[in-house]
Amino acid sequence: MEKKLGRPRSEKTKKAILTAAYELLLEKGFGTVTIEKIAKKAGVSKATIYKWWPNKAAVIMDGFFDAAVVRLPIPDTGSTINDMIIQVNNLSKFLVSREGRVINEIIAEGQYDQKLAKTYRTIYFRPRRLDSRYILERGISRGELKEDLDIELIIDLIFGPLFYRLLITGDVVDEDFIKKLVSYVFKGIIQN
């Protein structure tokens, strides 16, 4: 007897769930969103959600990432430093928007919930790092940057101060700050 695999995942249903999760996140905040509320808003059963996502954090982060990825395209101006300035500027503008402030809530929740922390690192931050890695590797291949760079460290040097200001000090993050930040980092990595 052949085992049935079940119905295939419907893209329409998936989109409804992700949209519901994202809208509830923006309306109510992470702490008050539940699988029950997502299911009700999306018009699906809780079982449907649990079939595709292991927990609330995973579906919320997927919904968030699905919405955020459209707002954060990878720039290609022909100049690695300009691409990084645009990348950091776009991310900083996103992070101070209502949608982006959700990241602060999720990071705060992740301090007490290791599964959530792992989920936001995997679904949101790792892809953002890969985007930056791509820009820097492209700069190396163009001959703009030194070949022996520790790319992960460069990413930390660029984005660490951004998150420090946004999450800790509350100091201004504007285009001037971002240009200075990226320029200072690039002084040490530009190919001479």
Automatic annotation (TrEMBL):
GO molecular function: DNA-binding transcription factor activity; transcription cis-regulatory region binding
Record keywords: DNA-binding, Transcription, Transcription regulation
Residue ranges annotated for the HTH tetR-type domain, each copy included: 11-71
Entry-linked InterPro entries: HTH-type_TetR-like_transc_reg, HTH_TetR, TetR_C
DNA-binding region: 34-53
PANTHER family linked: HTH-TYPE TRANSCRIPTIONAL REGULATOR RUTR, TETR-FAMILY TRANSCRIPTIONAL REGULATOR
Name of the protein: TetR/AcrR family transcriptional regulator
Organism of origin: Clostridium thailandense
